[in-house]
Amino acid sequence: MPLTDLETALATIYPQDLEKLAADLLAERGYDVDPTGTQGADGGLDAVLYDDDRCGVLHVSRTQSDRLRGKITSDAEKAAEYDQSYDFFVFVTTADPSGSLRRRLEAELQDEYGWTVNIWAREQLRNALMTDHQRLVREHLNVDPGVPRVGQREEIIELRDDRLDCIQNRTELPNELPDGPTVVVHVIPVTAVTSTDPTPPGNLPAVPFFGHSKRVPDAGKFVSDGVVGYNHRVRQAYPDYLYLNESGWIEGVSTEYFRSKPGEDGGVIDRDVDRAIAATVHGSLYCFTDLGIEAPVFVFVALLDAGQYTMSSDGIPEFTKGWFPDRFTAGPVELETLDPDEFELDHLRPVLDRIWYQAGRSNGSPHLSNLDESGDE
C-alpha cells in the first residue's frame, strides 16, 4: 500500500528535525522537556522528560525497521549508564515495525531495566499527528494531515463498495442476516486503509446494536477479524448487526426498517431510519475513542434492494413520493470531531437529506427541517 504524504515526510525527515518534532510533540502531550546538555543527532541522550515527580529519558532515531532492535537496545544501554536514574524511557523512531515487535521490545526493555517503556514508531507518530497536533505537522513536515490523498479516498470507497456487494449477496458477513431490503451504515477512518497494525479481536471494545448509541457489555461475539454486536433476545434470524473490524472500520446493517405490502411488490420504509443511522454513527464514536482512532473519518449510507419502496409519510406534510433504486448510496460525510459528546444529528445532514430528497421530500429530512424551524425537534 502506498505511503501517505505524512508517512513519506516522516520516513524522510532529517534526524535533527525529527528530534525537534519529538520534543515539541511530547511537550504538547504534557511532558516538561529539557534538552539542555543533550548530544542529539543519534549521539545519545536527546532530552530529559519530566512528568510530575517522574523523570524520564528521550531518545530519537531515524532508522530502518530491520535495524530497530539493535538501535533501541544500544540506546537503552547508554541510558542505563547515565549518572541520573530514570523512571521511564521514550524512544521515537521513523521505523515502521509490526505492532507485535514494538510491544515485545517495550516488554523486554521494561523487564531488563525496570522502566516504563514507550516506543513511538511511524504509525504511532502518524496517528497522534493526524488531528491532535496538526500545527506540528505543518510546522515541521510541511504537510496538511487533515486532507486524505486521492488514493486513500479511492481505497475507502472501494472498501465500502466491496462490503455492499457482500451484503447484497449475503456472503462474507460477520453474522447471519435475513434476506430483503437493507439499510447499511459504514463509518471508515482513513487509518483503516493505511494501518498495518490491526487490533486483535479480543482487544476490541464492546459495540452497540444497530440504531443505538449505548453499548451493551457482552452483547456481541468475537469473529476471526473483529467483533459483532446483535440482539441475542431475537429468536429468529437476527435482523441487524453492528460489526467492528480489526482494522478499525465499522459496518452497521439492518433489515428492520422496511415493511412490505402483502400481495404487492415493494413497501414502506420507516421514517425513523435516519434517526437509527445517526444513533449508529454516534455509538461508533465511542468505539473509536476507546481505540484511539482519530479523524478524518467518513460516513457512508446505503439502501440495498429497496426498489419499489417509498418513505413512510406518517405525520409528515404531504409530499410527492419517490422510489429507491436497488442500490442507493449517499456520502461520504467527513466528521470533523470524533468526540461522542459533541455529536449532533446535523453532522449527518448531507446523507440524511439526500435520502429524503430521493424519497421525494424537497426540504430533506423532516427531523432536520424541524430543527431548522424550531431549534428543537
UniProtKB/TrEMBL annotation:
Signal peptide: none annotated. Keywords: Endonuclease, Hydrolase, Nuclease. It holds the Pfam family Mrr_cat. GO terms for biological process: DNA restriction-modification system. One of its GO terms (molecular function) is DNA binding. InterPro entries: Restrct_endonuc_IV_Mrr. The keyword Coiled coil does not apply. Residues 12-96 form the Restriction endonuclease type IV Mrr domain. This is Restriction endonuclease.
